[in-house]
Structures are given as C-alpha cells and as structure tokens.
Amino acid sequence: MNKKNKYTVTDQIITRITAWVAGAIVIALAIWGVFSLWDLYKFEETNDAQVQEYINPVISRAGGFIVAVKFDENQEMKKGDTLLVIDNREYVIQQQQTEAALLNARSQLKVLESNVQTLTKTSQVNHSQIAAAQAKLLKQQLDYARYQKLYAVESATKQQLENVEALKDVADADLQSTRESYQASLSKINDTQTQQVVVKAEIKRLEALLDRHKLDVTYTVITAPYNCRMGRRSVEKGQMIDAGQVLAYIVDEETDKWVVANYKETQIGLMRIGEAAEIEADAYPGKKFKGVIISLSPATGSSFSLLPPDNSTGNYVKIVQRVPVRIRLTGARKEIDLLKAGMNVNVAISKNKS
C-alpha cells in the first residue's frame, strides 16, 4: 500500500511539472505569435534578398608575358597602385620605329620646303629673263623692219635682210623658250607643294600611330582604377596573356553598397522611393542595418529572364511574381563593410504610411 502511494505522489509531481512546462511553452508560443502577427501587420518582410556591390574584372589591354604581379587576393589597393606589369619591350621597339619614321618624314618636309624656296627663286629668274627676251625680240623686229625698207630702195643686200630675219627668229624662239622655262618652274613648284601635302598627311598618320604606340606602352602597366579590394586572381608571373583577357576581379570600395530585395508583387503596393528599410544579415544575427529604398524595378524578375514566360501558350498557372527593390545601405562605412556582396539578408519595410 505504501509503495502504491509513493508511485502516486511521483506521478502527481511529474504531471505537475509537465503541466507547467506545457503552459510555459504555450505562453512562449503565444508571445511569439503576437510578435509575429505584429511584425506581419507592421512590416513587409522578405528573406529573398542579397547584398550587392560593384565587382569589376581587371582586363588587359595589351598582350605579352607578365613580369610582375603586385597584389594578392583580398588585398586592399589604393587608386593608382600597380597591379600587374607586362613585358613592354616589343611595344617600346614599335614606338621607337614610329619615332624614326616620323623624324624621317619631318626631314623630308624640310627638304621639300627648301626645294620650294629654290624653285621659287629660279622661277623669278626665268620671269625676269622673259622681259629681256622680249626686249631683244623687239630690237630684232625693228632691225628687220628697217632692213626691209633699205632692201626695197636697194640700200641693203638680200643677204643682210636674211641675216636680220634669222636673228629675229632666234630672238622669238628664245622668248618662247624662256616662257616655257618659266611655266616649267611653276609646275615644279606645284609638284613640290603637292608632295608637301602628302608628306604632311604622312606625318599626321605617324603622329597618331606614335600616340597609339605610347598608349600601348602605358597599357603594359595595369593600375587600380579606384580604391578597391582585390578578389579572385587568375594569373601568375611568367604567364602569357592576350589583350582582353580577364586577369582578376576587384571590388569597388568608393561606391555605396546596396541590397536587392525580391518582394512579392502583393507586397510592393505601398512602397515608395525614399522609405527606410531595416536589414538583418544571416551572418550577424540580431544586428540591424539601415537602408533606404532608391528604386523599384520597372518589371518583374521573370520578365528580364533569358526566356520570359509566355502565358498565351495555354499552359497558364498563376504564380505570384517578385519585383526587385533596390535598397541603399546607410550608416557608418565601418558597419556597412561588414556586409559582403552575395550575403543573404532579411529585409523589413514598414507598412505604416504617414
């Protein structure tokens, strides 16, 4: 009988403890339910959200062998710091060849300019000889007319008249020759000036080519375009690379970070640009980050997919679509830097509109 009473008391104690535990659980669940309902009433929440920031590839604009790599993965770099150095000897040789060709073309231009000056003076001499030849021809024409009169009155012989006529013809021929020499000198000047135009065009081409080769030389030293943190590295010293090849990735630390929260279409009706948002990262439970809505996508995510759904095919099933909402992180940069691109976060935006 005593043993029976002992078990009964034990059972009563266990029952009481179980009842208290169950009651505590019910109360805890009720409190959790109240807070959850309050959050659902007050906030639009989603866990389909990720941290984003600008991640850019480092792309080579010149090909060649890498002679130096000046960074490691995850290293912080300042704007202008050297990341990679490519063997530039081929590019320097090309630059020197172009410089030599440019020097040669400029020398040719100076020679042509000197030739123009010389031909101009020669032309001036020929032009002055025309006047002398005209005067000589005029004298011979007057002598011929005089001897014609003398021959008519038999005061001069036919031979003398023929001699004077021959001298007149020679003077006329000299005048024509002098004029042709003058025209030829003018043509040479025009030809030389045309050659100058050609050489000047070649100089411009070589100057542009030289600028290009100088750019190619600068491309062999790759520097950080802004303050950044290095990401994955895919090259090593001694490796042969081609122009356009991706060498590494960098994360821009000068621009803001943001969160892309993919809300259901039924949740965005009251959202407006400029509204505050509360963000909690899975990596930092309990720690709250602040943000502000800066834009809402002009279309749902599925509309931007490679193969958007076509409901007119007849296989229509209504699915709630999601609309990306872009939220800029605000607050101290030190805290924002705790969040890395790709991290999952929970976002809550207040429903209460003032």
Structural class category? alpha+beta
Oligomer: single chain
> Gap between N and C termini, in Å?
73 Å
User: What is the fold-level CATH name, i.e. the topology of the domain at 89-217?
Assistant: Helix Hairpins
Give the strand tally: 14
> What is the annotated CATH architecture of the domain at 89-217?
Orthogonal Bundle
> Major sheet: order of its strands?
1-10-13-12-11-14
Biggest sheet features = 6 strands, antiparallel, barrel
Uncertain spans: none
Encode the helix/strand succession as letters: HEEEEEHHEEEEEEEEHE
Q: Work out the helix count.
A: 4
| Rg | 48 Å
Overall geometric form: rod-shaped
Highest CATH level, the class of the domain at 89-217: Mainly Alpha
How much of the sequence is in beta strands?
15-25%
Nearest-integer average pLDDT: 85
DSSP helix fraction: 40-55%
Ordered list of secondary-structure elements with their pairings:
Blueprint: H1 2-42, E1 43-52, E2 55-59, E3 64-69, E4 76-77, E5 82-86, H2 89-152, H3 158-219, E6 221-223, E7 228-233, E8 240-241, E9 246-252, E10 258-264, E11 276-281, E12 288-296, E13 322-330, H4 333-336, E14 344-350
Antiparallel strand pairs: 1-10, 1-14, 2-9, 3-5, 3-8, 4-7, 5-6, 7-9, 10-13, 11-12, 11-14, 12-13
Helix pairs in contact: 2-3
